[in-house]
Automatic annotation (TrEMBL):
GO terms for molecular function: L-leucine binding; oxidoreductase activity, acting on peroxide as acceptor. This is SESN1 protein. The gene is Sesn1. Belongs to the sestrin family. It is found in: Cytoplasm. GO terms for cellular component: cytoplasm; nucleus.
């Protein structure tokens, strides 16, 4: 009546993939979660939807918030506005407008120059120089060489120091992988963000204006279970879980009986690496970057390409020669104190996190499955563990699951609800979110390994 346009939420809950009633409701959380919500609110000035989905796994969320807070707000080599701008550059590479919008606000809040937001060409040359590294880390990290590092460290007045570069690399990898989580869990924008609300007037006959303010969506509720979800009989899904558990048991027995030779293990890795190229990472056509987000990076046509395509051979990255534990961790900790420790803790929590359950089954050792997921992601990046039998991956990860993994890790912006629904159909949403945590951390570590190895080679 007063002519005021009232925003109404477009989404139902923090995720488009997880029904609102199955997420953790604010106000019904336990004491641990309440503390985490308070921390997140104090740090970000809001309780964002990423936190509301991640809280399925409080131990991980605590480590994640601590790391992100340190990277963005504590003492470090880079000024605060640079940190948020690098976050924008990284999220934009995957067209993740959700993260871009959050950091645009933060960038302005800490005194960043609004002109930089008109496009990367308006930012200082020093940040523009980071564009190439951002692009390669996001899409083809195996191409990074010590020459790329040298260019950044030796460009006269716009040069980066080693400590600044480590800070930038950790921020870039953090936001590339957080974009994977955002798309992989179908995170919805908050009501006050772009894409999070509509001003369409409600049908007054259905409910009154005060309902809108209280988040009741009336007519829209009938759309709460979107089309595209795959109906499946519960017997079929139960069989899926039973079959997966049976395979794990058989593989354990085979392990105990005989061990494959080193040559055979190497052959199986190459076979899996080759096969991973034929897993299509998307159901959709190429999605063009929107002008709004693409102005924050150069070379918009550059994207993920399998490393063995077009006769190009990328040497296998052997973890025995350069690993996070023995090399990357100490390099990061030396140049950016405490961050190595924080990242290490986060990797360990994601990799070892277990509640010993699988769907409706309890007291299950899931370590074999978690390792297969982690190593499959590293295999897609050309990273090999000499002591792992890559034959296990094909036994444990079916095709629809591999499609989901590859899409979320390599081209997250193409993830659909159908893909999310089509793998592990009998599993809890919290278990699928757990899968996404593994994907996020394995991806981040893979990118870091290539960047840190190049920095180490430059230094030596």
């Amino acid at each position: 009546e007063l002519g005021i346009r009232i925003p109404r939420p477009l989404g139902h809950g923090p995720s488009r993939f997880i029904p609102e009633k199955e997420t953790i409701q604010v106000g019904k959380e336990d004491a641990t979660m309440h503390t985490l919500f308070a921390e997140s609110f104090a740090t970000l000035g809001r309780l964002d939807n990423v936190t509301l989905v991640m809280v399925f796994h409080p131990q991980y969320l605590e480590s994640f918030l601590k790391t992100q807070h340190y990277l963005l707000q504590m003492d470090g080599p880079l000024p605060l506005h640079y940190r948020h701008y690098i976050g924008i550059m990284a999220a934009a590479r995957h067209q993740c407008s959700y993260l871009v919008n959050l950091h645009v606000n933060d960038f302005l809040h800490v005194g960043g120059d609004p002109k930089w937001l008109n496009g990367l060409e308006n930012a200082p040359q020093k940040l523009q120089n980071l564009g190439e590294l951002n692009k390669m880390l996001a899409h083809r990290p195996w191409l990074i060489t010590k020459e790329h590092i040298e260019q950044l460290l030796k460009t006269e007045e716009n040069s980066w120091s080693l400590a600044e570069l480590i800070h930038a690399v950790v921020l870039l990898t953090h936001y590339h992988s957080l974009a994977s989580f955002t798309f992989g869990c179908g995170i919805s924008p908050e009501i006050d963000c772009e894409g999070g609300h509509t001003f369409r007037p409600p049908s007054v006959s259905n409910y009154c204006i005060c309902d809108i303010a209280n988040g009741y969506h009336g007519v829209d509720e009938i759309h709460a279970s979107p089309a595209g979800s795959i109906p499946v009989s519960s017997t079929e899904s139960v069989c899926e879980v039973e079959a997966l558990m049976e395979k794990m048991k058989q593989l354990q027995e085979c392990r105990d009986e005989e061990e494959a030779s080193q040559e055979e293990m190497a052959t199986r890795f190459e076979r899996e690496k080759r096969e991973s190229m034929f897993v299509c990472s998307s159901e959709d056509e190429e999605s063009a970057a929107t002008r709004d987000v693409s102005r924050h990076f150069e070379d918009t046509s550059y994207g993920y390409k399998d490393f063995s395509r077009h006769g190009m051979h990328v040497p296998t990255f052997r973890v025995q020669d350069y690993s996070w534990e023995d090399h990357g961790y100490s390099l990061v900790n030396r140049l950016y104190p405490d961050v190595g420790q924080l990242l290490d803790e986060k990797f360990h929590i994601a990799y070892n996190l277990t509640y010993n359950t699988m769907a409706m089954h309890k007291d299950v050792d899931t370590s074999m499955l978690r390792r297969a997921i982690w190593n499959y992601i590293h295999c897609m990046f050309g990273i090999r563990y000499d002591d792992y039998d890559y034959g296990e991956i094909n036994q444990l990860l079916d095709r629809s699951f591999k499609v989901y993994i590859k899409t979320v890790v390599c081209t997250p912006e193409k993830t659909t609800k159908r893909m999310y629904d089509s793998f592990w159909r009998q599993f809890e949403h919290s278990e699928k979110v757990h899968v996404n945590l593994l994907l996020v951390e394995a991806r981040m570590q893979a990118e870091l390994l290539y960047a840190l190895r190049a920095i180490t080679r430059y230094m030596t």
